Amino acid sequence: MGASFGRGGATQSLADMANADCVVIQGSNMAEAHPVGFQWVSEAKARGAKIIHVDPRFTRTTAIADKHVRIRVGSDIVLLGALINHVLTNELYFDEYVRAFTNAATIITEGYEDPEDLDGLFSGFDPETNTYDRTTWSYADADGSGRPTAPGAAAEQDPTLTHPRSVFQLLKRHYQRYTPELVEEVCGISPADFAYLAKTITENSGRERTTCFAYAVGWTQHAQGAQYIRTAAILQLLLGNMGRPGGGIMALRGHASIQGSTDIPTLFNLLPGYLPMPVAGVHDTLDDYIEAVGPQEQKSFWTNADAYTVSLLKAWWGEAATPENNFAYDYLPRLNGAHGTYQTVMRMLRDEVDGYFILGQNPAVGSANGRMQRLGMSHLKWLVVRDYNMIETATWWKDGPEIETGEMRTEDIETEVFFLPAANHMEKSGTFTQTQRMVQWREAALAPPGDAQSELHFFYEFGKRLRERLADSTDPRDLPLQHLTWDYPVDEHGEPDPEAVLREINGYDVATGEPLSGFGQYRADGSTVGGCWIYAGVYADGVNRSNQRPTRAEQDEMSSNWAWAWPANRRILYNRASADADGRPWSERKKLMWWDAEAGRWAGPDVPDFPIDRAPDAVPEPGATGPAALSGTDAFIMQPDGKGWLFAPSGVVDGPLPTHYEAQESPIGNAVYGQQHPPTQVFFDRDDNPMKPSSGLAGSEVYPFAFTTYRLTEHHTAGGMSRWLPVLSELQPELFAEISPELAELRGLEPYGWATIISPRTAIEVRVLVTERVRPVTAGGQQVHQIGLPYHWAVGKDAVVTGDSVNDLIGLTLDPNVFIQDSKTGACDIRPGRRPRGPELLQLVEEYRERAGIAVAGEPNPYASDLEEGRYDASIAHAGNAATNADVPVADDDASRAPDAGAWPTGEER
């Protein structure tokens, strides 16, 4: 999808932020949500860097920033797009960098049409399915015919960057209407603030200086979340800030191993190391799969996907994985649609799911549209909840909101709920992988109490018992379980040795048992085992490198011997781009990697993210494929063509260039194009997911205000780790809403009094915090009031503090690329006083819906989008995939046709 997260992680190390000359924090309140990492922003400031915070609220992050740019939620693409336009129009881009390392010179096929031509749509849009045929977004074949070709194959180029279909010219045309005036109209940002931002980032980019962007769920949790980040990646490529010290894009992940949970995934559509799950009818054989994941016309390291895949299969099925049975490839399940959080809940509601495991989540209060989650669980036969507190997901059947309203009665609920005690993070040893791709070891501080188990212990025992039950089975469907490698050494308590698991993840030679030193040693012939190819090297030479903890005096400038970062212990990805086309550092001040001609290799304090002996002037042999096809300037080695993508010819389903659309519940119309909402967003048109009428339609005024969610330092996600702790609960005892003095006066709200917030889904009560930290913005020709809501509370009887769940307010619209929900752009009304209790609460919500013209249960919604259709697309499983653009047909129902989040979005925020 671009340079910023082609491998699923941040491009820089957190400590490298101290080397930035400017840090733009947008979509994050880093000081409060990532306080440990924020020390490096403070260090950058102490060294003279400019800190800019772009956010709807004034926060603790803002308090140390040089500039606060207040923005309307949901409008970030307009701001970033205007910065791109400013850079292009004023020729402030890093010309040498752009020419050498991006696809600016590549020609796009003749059939491509832009939203400038189609009033907000790209070419290939099918209104029947709300999907794109992306063939016309392709590169043009090098033969000059204008026909499409796959990225990585020979494509037509224009080194002058003047061809009208060159990426560079298409980029200029696409963003030409993103002006400071549009920023003021859409984002509510003054021309002076925009000028400050534009001047600061351009003055702090180039040969001598670098700017870093940092984001968190304020960017990701939108129906265009992937495109928010893509826009920043385009800007950073134009400014020459990728792969360089103090540059890049820092993806601020949540609690400790959110990064790890996508590397070795809890996502339904991924295998370890960002290998995609096979899709039924598309990847029927191992050859089909390898051809799709690692097409050989690419230059990237994805062409070695056969080695990564076979080594993974050997890790799972050992001696049972042989060349004769395609290394047990048929043991892998196949996707027949999207199987994420929200589709699963809808299947529950249709009585299509018997049982459900909840591990490390609290979806009864932590997922969007919490009522749908709780009602879904009431349709299960059994539910297993593993946690170390009696969270609301374990108790909704007796004290949830629907019990109070009478929508559910405990005696009518047939779900059998099992609560299993779990060890917390201080009670287990092993690795966690944090925001900068760093794998770190931790030792258990104490043993878990009673029957509480770590996840490793639980699943090891669970697997043993399943295998024992099936030991005598002759049913072929049981072979995958019977043949699993499940022989880890255990301690006197039965706890598997986590280092043994890490060794398997790292990989080893089958014949000798020796650990592998890097993913380059993985083989496709079955001679190597490897549980996650990007982690290869973490156990090199039999040393647990995640457990390296030298003193400060023993560390080098990169802290490269502190723990271990994937891949290959590189601290800055794509660091070949830190030197110019000839291999010389762009400047002495920003020196990182360089070509040592005498030694014939790349040198510098980091591990080269490039073939170490590939000279800057190297030209691949004709017909070369894979890494051998990388020229000396193909710095972005995980991209099919070796270039940073200003224009994405594949890998995204909603457009090759980020384009602004208004969120589903936006208070204003789209000032950029006639297309109001993202045309490919996943929308669930259901009675239990009602939405506010779109701006300009009758009834939209019933929910006049915008709300957005955020987190507090004192609480943790949905509160399962903090609301049971008296000290933290005392620091933040009650749910509150931050509102401006203007909104307080408008609605008659008293400081510290009660208020009721009503969305089309439900109503909650909050304490009122009247503060200058949130202020209205003028956008779309009107005053837009924005309400800030922390999302940590929930209704239940077991926690020290309780309160209504903010996530109950949120409706379901999803990003079509990564399937995350939009939690940041809801619509509501607010009024004084506490909410009604019991059935009166339902009456209040229904009265608002009726005034807005939203359908009552069982009737069609006249304002619903027709975008409930969605299809899981195999070609977006990872960013480097140059496979076919065809959609994968799946079952014809609203749940399985709408892609959705797996686990990392839920863990990230909720």
Automatic annotation (TrEMBL):
Domain Molybdopterin oxidoreductase: from-to ranges: 11-371
Any one of the GO CC terms: cell envelope
Domain of life per record: Bacteria
Region described as Disordered: 136-159, 882-910
Molybdopterin dinucleotide-binding domain sequence ranges: 705-816
Cofactor requirements of the protein: [4Fe-4S] cluster
A biological-process GO annotation: anaerobic respiration
Localization, UniProt: Cell envelope
Family to which the UniProt record says this protein belongs: Belongs to the prokaryotic molybdopterin-containing oxidoreductase family.
This protein's name: Formate dehydrogenase
Source organism per UniProt: Gulosibacter macacae
